[in-house]
Amino acid sequence: MITYEYPLNERIRTLLRLEDLFERARGFVARTEPHDHHVALITLFEVLDVAGRADLKSDLLQELERQKQTLLALRNNPDISEQALNEVLRDIEQVSGALLGMAGRIGQYLRDNDWLMAIKQRTGIPGGVCEFDLPSYHYWLHRPAEDRIAQLTAWLGPLHPLRDGAAIILRILRESGKPQKLAASQGTFQQMLGGKSAQMIRVRVDSDQECVPEISANKYVLNVRFLSQQTEDSRSKTADWDVSFELTFCNL
237 Cβ partners below 8 Å, 6+ apart? Predict the structure, then answer.
């Protein structure tokens, strides 16, 4: 099954982007080839840009506190595992403390690094980081892999409270919904929402279906159109068969 997630507000969109970028950075930092570490550094710059929202840290802290109060109200509920509840509360406390410890503007230590900012500026130019443009970067890419890994880890490390805060909120969000098994007649599906609120929609499709969902939603109606991937034709074509899928409305 392939899961497609569709955020319904800018805050969740930002958290999903951060999650994807941190996961990509983790994967490429763990490798050893210079090209892998080049991608890791480009991804670090993307994290910096996405995390540059002035209210991101306060949004995370407010949502974590809100979830903490909601979870505390579940104490002594016989249907809730006390151990699992305490583990989530402990994680929230630790991440909130780490976020509060992030003084000043997020990522300012990276912006203060003139060498990194010179590379970042050149990455906006196609082929702009060739060895003749940035010989010092060329030299860095030829340093031992363990040295590059250590530096990349040091640059990413102070941003990890954002990663961890986003991970907790997205985990709670994903677990909030109950999947429904549905079918899209001739590749199209529509559902009136009747005021149902959601912050994210999840659609799961078997990879054998050879189609991808195109999702649009507002507070009144949800539309899902499945686009066939059976040909290499670049033109979008609605699947001409009934597509079975799972739909989940997620809300904090």
Answer: 227, 228, 231
